[in-house]
Amino acid sequence: MGIDRRTRLAFAAAMMGLVVLNGEAAAQGEAKSEAPKGVVTLTASLKAKPGQEDAVKEALLSLVEPTRKEPGCLHYILHQSKTDPTLFMFYEQWEGQEALDAHGKSPHMKALGAKLKDKTDKGGGVVKYDLLK
């Protein structure tokens, strides 16, 4: 069973985000190879319909500030592909599954569906990761 192109792109984007995060931390003398037990790390990606990139970007950007203020949010970083402006990806870390579940029930997340209605293509999704080292 092969891995489709979209999955490979999402994985590559996630890994690049990790490299950037770790590089910044190392430059500040804060690089660590361990996360506290129970931390949930994930990427969430989606694809805008052609011509809807700006509307999708605005909707996704509206999530960043309130989400970063949520209890248990460690990292919530939005990316847009340099080679395909229709691709967006969040790199997220949460103190635990309960914090992530609460995020999904937050008012700004509940409002997202209406903001993105008819503006995104199928594809994308959420991928959770385990820290290896």
TrEMBL record:
SUPFAM superfamilies: Dimeric alpha+beta barrel
Top-level class of the enzyme under EC nomenclature: oxidoreductase
InterPro entries to which the protein is assigned, alphabetical: ABM_dom (IPR007138), AI-2_Isomerase_LsrG (IPR050744), Dimeric_a/b-barrel (IPR011008)
Residues annotated as domain ABM: 40-129
EC number: 1.-.-.-
Keywords for this protein: Monooxygenase, Oxidoreductase, Signal
First and last residue of the signal peptide: 1-27
Domain of life where this protein originates: Bacteria
GO molecular function: monooxygenase activity
UniProt-recorded name of the protein: Quinol monooxygenase
